[in-house]
Amino acid sequence: MAEAEWTAVDRYITDTLVHPDPALDAALRASEEAGLPAISVSANQGKLLQLMARMQGARNILEIGTLGGYSTIWLARALPRGGRLITLESEPKHAEVARANIAHAGLAGIVDLSLGRALDTLPVLEEEGAGPFDFVFIDADKPSNPDYFAWALRLSRPGTVIVVDNVVRAGAVADPDSSDISVRGVRELNALMAAEPRVTATAIQTVGSKGYDGFAVALVTE
Ligand SMILES: C[S@@+](CC[C@H](N)C(=O)[O-])C[C@H]1O[C@@H](n2cnc3c(N)ncnc32)[C@H](O)[C@@H]1O
Ligand SMILES: [Mg+2]
Fold first, then answer.
1. Which listed residue, of 15, 61, 68, 137, carries a Cα 20 to 30 Å from 153's Cα?
2. 92-104 helix and 22-33 helix, angle to the nearest 10 degrees
3. What is the DSSP letter of 106?
4. How many angstroms separate the alpha carbon of residue 64 from the centre of ligand 1?
5. Residue 84 C-alpha to ligand 1 middle, in angstroms?
6. pLDDT tens digit sequence for 36-53
7. Angle, vertex CA 42, rays to CA 99 and CA 83, nearest 5
8. Ligand 1 center from residue 62 Cα (angstroms)
9. Buried b / exposed e across 204-221, counting CB within 10 Å, b at 16+?
10. Of 19, 12, 85, 86, nearest to 46 (Cα)?
11. How far apart are CA 29 and CA 117, in angstroms?
Protein backbone atom coordinates (compact mmCIF):
# COMPACT_ATOMS: atom_id res chain seq x y z
CA MET A 1 0.00 0.00 0.00
CA ALA A 2 2.70 2.45 0.98
CA GLU A 3 4.57 1.79 -2.28
CA ALA A 4 1.44 2.57 -4.32
CA GLU A 5 1.06 5.85 -2.46
CA TRP A 6 4.74 6.77 -2.90
CA THR A 7 4.43 6.02 -6.61
CA ALA A 8 1.27 8.13 -6.92
CA VAL A 9 2.98 11.07 -5.22
CA ASP A 10 6.05 10.66 -7.44
CA ARG A 11 3.74 10.73 -10.46
CA TYR A 12 2.04 13.88 -9.13
CA ILE A 13 5.40 15.59 -8.48
CA THR A 14 6.74 14.58 -11.88
CA ASP A 15 3.60 15.64 -13.73
CA THR A 16 3.59 18.97 -11.89
CA LEU A 17 7.23 20.00 -11.68
CA VAL A 18 9.29 17.89 -14.05
CA HIS A 19 8.63 18.96 -17.61
CA PRO A 20 8.43 16.13 -20.13
CA ASP A 21 11.60 15.60 -22.15
CA PRO A 22 11.14 13.36 -25.21
CA ALA A 23 14.81 12.30 -25.16
CA LEU A 24 14.59 11.14 -21.54
CA ASP A 25 11.32 9.32 -22.17
CA ALA A 26 12.84 7.68 -25.26
CA ALA A 27 15.90 6.63 -23.23
CA LEU A 28 13.70 4.86 -20.70
CA ARG A 29 11.67 3.17 -23.46
CA ALA A 30 14.77 2.02 -25.34
CA SER A 31 16.33 0.72 -22.12
CA GLU A 32 13.21 -1.27 -21.32
CA GLU A 33 12.96 -2.62 -24.86
CA ALA A 34 16.58 -3.73 -24.69
CA GLY A 35 15.82 -5.62 -21.47
CA LEU A 36 17.89 -3.43 -19.14
CA PRO A 37 16.83 -3.57 -15.47
CA ALA A 38 14.54 -0.72 -14.33
CA ILE A 39 17.03 0.58 -11.79
CA SER A 40 17.68 4.07 -13.07
CA VAL A 41 16.87 7.07 -10.92
CA SER A 42 13.27 8.28 -11.12
CA ALA A 43 12.41 11.43 -13.09
CA ASN A 44 12.17 13.65 -10.01
CA GLN A 45 15.45 12.23 -8.68
CA GLY A 46 17.07 12.86 -12.08
CA LYS A 47 15.90 16.44 -11.93
CA LEU A 48 17.26 16.78 -8.39
CA LEU A 49 20.67 15.63 -9.63
CA GLN A 50 20.44 18.13 -12.47
CA LEU A 51 19.50 20.94 -10.07
CA MET A 52 22.36 20.05 -7.72
CA ALA A 53 24.85 20.08 -10.60
CA ARG A 54 23.49 23.44 -11.77
CA MET A 55 23.49 24.94 -8.28
CA GLN A 56 27.08 23.85 -7.99
CA GLY A 57 27.98 25.35 -11.38
CA ALA A 58 29.46 22.05 -12.51
CA ARG A 59 31.37 22.09 -15.80
CA ASN A 60 33.06 18.74 -15.45
CA ILE A 61 31.00 15.75 -14.22
CA LEU A 62 31.97 12.14 -13.50
CA GLU A 63 29.33 9.41 -13.30
CA ILE A 64 30.11 5.87 -12.17
CA GLY A 65 27.35 3.49 -13.38
CA THR A 66 25.64 4.47 -16.64
CA LEU A 67 23.03 1.75 -17.29
CA GLY A 68 20.99 3.14 -20.25
CA GLY A 69 22.22 6.71 -19.76
CA TYR A 70 19.08 8.07 -18.07
CA SER A 71 20.82 9.85 -15.17
CA THR A 72 23.63 10.68 -17.61
CA ILE A 73 21.23 12.69 -19.76
CA TRP A 74 19.77 14.50 -16.74
CA LEU A 75 23.26 15.46 -15.58
CA ALA A 76 24.63 16.33 -19.02
CA ARG A 77 21.70 18.71 -19.50
CA ALA A 78 22.98 20.63 -16.44
CA LEU A 79 26.25 21.48 -18.16
CA PRO A 80 27.02 24.92 -19.56
CA ARG A 81 28.52 25.31 -23.04
CA GLY A 82 31.95 23.69 -23.07
CA GLY A 83 31.05 21.35 -20.18
CA ARG A 84 31.93 17.64 -20.23
CA LEU A 85 30.61 14.48 -18.62
CA ILE A 86 32.46 11.17 -18.36
CA THR A 87 30.38 8.12 -17.48
CA LEU A 88 31.74 4.67 -16.63
CA GLU A 89 29.96 1.40 -17.42
CA SER A 90 31.16 -2.21 -17.33
CA GLU A 91 28.36 -3.98 -19.25
CA PRO A 92 28.81 -3.78 -23.03
CA LYS A 93 25.08 -4.10 -23.66
CA HIS A 94 24.26 -1.28 -21.23
CA ALA A 95 26.96 0.85 -22.83
CA GLU A 96 25.59 0.23 -26.32
CA VAL A 97 22.05 1.24 -25.29
CA ALA A 98 23.37 4.25 -23.37
CA ARG A 99 25.49 5.47 -26.30
CA ALA A 100 22.43 5.37 -28.56
CA ASN A 101 20.28 7.16 -25.95
CA ILE A 102 22.92 9.82 -25.37
CA ALA A 103 23.32 10.39 -29.12
CA HIS A 104 19.53 10.58 -29.54
CA ALA A 105 19.47 13.25 -26.81
CA GLY A 106 22.01 15.26 -28.85
CA LEU A 107 24.68 14.86 -26.16
CA ALA A 108 27.24 12.64 -27.91
CA GLY A 109 29.57 15.61 -28.29
CA ILE A 110 29.79 16.33 -24.58
CA VAL A 111 29.45 12.87 -22.99
CA ASP A 112 32.24 10.28 -23.07
CA LEU A 113 31.23 6.76 -22.10
CA SER A 114 34.13 4.64 -20.95
CA LEU A 115 33.47 0.90 -21.18
CA GLY A 116 35.11 -1.31 -18.56
CA ARG A 117 35.10 -1.98 -14.83
CA ALA A 118 35.28 1.41 -13.15
CA LEU A 119 38.16 0.34 -10.93
CA ASP A 120 40.11 -0.35 -14.14
CA THR A 121 39.04 2.75 -16.05
CA LEU A 122 39.41 5.27 -13.19
CA PRO A 123 43.22 4.93 -13.08
CA VAL A 124 43.28 5.40 -16.87
CA LEU A 125 41.22 8.57 -16.52
CA GLU A 126 43.68 9.85 -13.94
CA GLU A 127 46.65 9.04 -16.18
CA GLU A 128 44.96 10.91 -19.00
CA GLY A 129 44.71 13.95 -16.73
CA ALA A 130 40.90 13.92 -16.40
CA GLY A 131 39.50 15.97 -13.57
CA PRO A 132 39.32 17.49 -11.14
CA PHE A 133 35.59 16.90 -11.41
CA ASP A 134 33.13 19.44 -10.03
CA PHE A 135 30.40 16.87 -9.47
CA VAL A 136 30.58 13.08 -9.08
CA PHE A 137 27.59 10.74 -9.14
CA ILE A 138 28.30 7.23 -7.81
CA ASP A 139 25.65 4.67 -8.80
CA ALA A 140 27.29 1.37 -9.78
CA ASP A 141 28.01 -1.86 -7.85
CA LYS A 142 27.44 -0.99 -4.21
CA PRO A 143 30.17 -3.18 -2.64
CA SER A 144 32.72 -0.97 -4.45
CA ASN A 145 31.32 2.25 -2.97
CA PRO A 146 34.28 2.75 -0.61
CA ASP A 147 36.72 2.47 -3.56
CA TYR A 148 34.59 4.75 -5.71
CA PHE A 149 34.47 7.32 -2.96
CA ALA A 150 38.26 7.19 -2.61
CA TRP A 151 38.58 7.70 -6.37
CA ALA A 152 36.04 10.52 -6.37
CA LEU A 153 38.07 12.26 -3.69
CA ARG A 154 41.29 11.70 -5.61
CA LEU A 155 39.75 13.28 -8.71
CA SER A 156 38.17 16.17 -6.79
CA ARG A 157 39.02 19.75 -5.78
CA PRO A 158 37.80 21.79 -2.81
CA GLY A 159 34.15 22.46 -3.66
CA THR A 160 33.49 19.19 -5.49
CA VAL A 161 30.12 17.62 -4.70
CA ILE A 162 29.91 13.82 -4.48
CA VAL A 163 26.47 12.17 -4.56
CA VAL A 164 26.10 8.44 -3.87
CA ASP A 165 22.84 6.72 -4.76
CA ASN A 166 20.98 3.89 -3.00
CA VAL A 167 22.53 4.24 0.44
CA VAL A 168 19.51 3.29 2.55
CA ARG A 169 18.58 -0.03 0.95
CA ALA A 170 15.05 -0.28 2.36
CA GLY A 171 16.40 0.51 5.83
CA ALA A 172 18.92 -2.32 5.90
CA VAL A 173 21.76 0.20 6.18
CA ALA A 174 20.98 0.60 9.90
CA ASP A 175 21.78 -3.08 10.58
CA PRO A 176 25.41 -3.35 11.73
CA ASP A 177 25.25 -7.15 11.40
CA SER A 178 23.96 -7.23 7.83
CA SER A 179 25.68 -9.84 5.68
CA ASP A 180 24.44 -8.18 2.47
CA ILE A 181 27.56 -7.05 0.61
CA SER A 182 25.79 -3.97 -0.79
CA VAL A 183 24.71 -2.88 2.70
CA ARG A 184 28.23 -3.49 3.94
CA GLY A 185 29.59 -1.40 1.06
CA VAL A 186 27.30 1.47 2.00
CA ARG A 187 28.16 1.26 5.71
CA GLU A 188 31.85 1.23 4.89
CA LEU A 189 31.34 4.23 2.63
CA ASN A 190 29.58 6.11 5.44
CA ALA A 191 32.38 5.27 7.87
CA LEU A 192 34.94 6.53 5.34
CA MET A 193 33.05 9.75 4.73
CA ALA A 194 32.68 10.31 8.47
CA ALA A 195 36.39 9.79 9.10
CA GLU A 196 37.60 11.82 6.12
CA PRO A 197 38.65 15.30 7.25
CA ARG A 198 38.50 16.64 3.68
CA VAL A 199 34.73 16.16 3.33
CA THR A 200 31.53 17.03 5.13
CA ALA A 201 28.61 14.72 4.37
CA THR A 202 25.10 13.63 5.16
CA ALA A 203 22.56 11.09 3.87
CA ILE A 204 18.84 11.40 3.22
CA GLN A 205 16.16 8.69 3.19
CA THR A 206 13.75 8.76 0.25
CA VAL A 207 10.55 6.97 -0.73
CA GLY A 208 9.00 6.95 -4.17
CA SER A 209 8.41 4.94 -7.31
CA LYS A 210 11.80 3.30 -6.79
CA GLY A 211 10.89 2.14 -3.27
CA TYR A 212 12.55 3.08 0.03
CA ASP A 213 16.13 4.15 -0.40
CA GLY A 214 18.23 7.30 -0.19
CA PHE A 215 21.33 9.16 -1.21
CA ALA A 216 24.43 10.56 0.40
CA VAL A 217 25.88 13.97 -0.40
CA ALA A 218 29.44 14.97 0.40
CA LEU A 219 31.16 18.29 -0.11
CA VAL A 220 34.93 18.31 -0.50
CA THR A 221 36.15 21.12 1.72
CA GLU A 222 39.93 21.05 1.31
C1 LIG B 1 21.98 1.36 -10.89
S2 LIG B 1 22.67 1.16 -12.48
C3 LIG B 1 23.02 2.84 -12.96
C4 LIG B 1 21.78 3.64 -13.14
C5 LIG B 1 22.01 5.00 -13.76
N6 LIG B 1 22.98 5.78 -12.99
C7 LIG B 1 20.70 5.77 -13.79
O8 LIG B 1 20.25 6.19 -12.72
O9 LIG B 1 20.14 5.94 -14.89
C10 LIG B 1 24.28 0.55 -12.14
C11 LIG B 1 25.15 0.35 -13.37
O12 LIG B 1 26.49 0.13 -12.94
C13 LIG B 1 27.07 -0.82 -13.77
N14 LIG B 1 28.20 -1.45 -13.07
C15 LIG B 1 28.17 -2.48 -12.20
N16 LIG B 1 29.41 -2.78 -11.80
C17 LIG B 1 30.24 -1.91 -12.43
C18 LIG B 1 31.64 -1.70 -12.43
N19 LIG B 1 32.45 -2.48 -11.70
N20 LIG B 1 32.14 -0.72 -13.20
C21 LIG B 1 31.32 0.08 -13.94
N22 LIG B 1 29.98 -0.07 -13.98
C23 LIG B 1 29.45 -1.05 -13.24
C24 LIG B 1 25.93 -1.81 -14.07
O25 LIG B 1 26.21 -2.56 -15.22
C26 LIG B 1 24.75 -0.87 -14.21
O27 LIG B 1 24.55 -0.50 -15.55
MG1 LIG C 1 20.75 4.17 -8.28
1. 68
2. 150
3. T
4. 7
5. 19
6. 999 999 999 999 999 999
7. 45
8. 13
9. eebbbbbbbbbbbbbbbe
10. 19
11. 25
Alpha-carbon span 47 to 103, nearest angstrom: 20
pLDDT at 184: 97
| Ligand 1 atom nearest residue 45's Cα | 8
Confidence of residue 181 (pLDDT cuts 50, 70, 90): very high
Burial 57-87 (b: 16+ CB within 10 A, else e): ebbbbbbbbbbbbbbbbbbbbbbeeebbbbb
Q: Is the pLDDT of residue 28 over 90?
A: yes
| Neighbour count for residue 178 (Cβ, 10 Å) | 15
ipTM of the complex: 0.99
- CA of 140 from ligand 2 middle (Å) equals 7
Number of domains in the chain: 1
Contacts of 153 (CB under 8 A, 6+ apart): 162, 196, 198, 199, 220
Q: How many residues does the chain have?
A: 222
Q: Which atom of ligand 1 is nearest to the CA of 144?
A: 19
Percent of the chain with pLDDT over 90: 98
Span from the CA of 80 to the centroid of ligand 1 (angstroms): 25
CATH code at position 159 = 3.40.50.150
Residues with CB under 6 A from ligand 1: 39-41, 65-67, 70-71, 88-91, 94, 117-118, 139-141, 144
Range of the domain at 192: 2-220
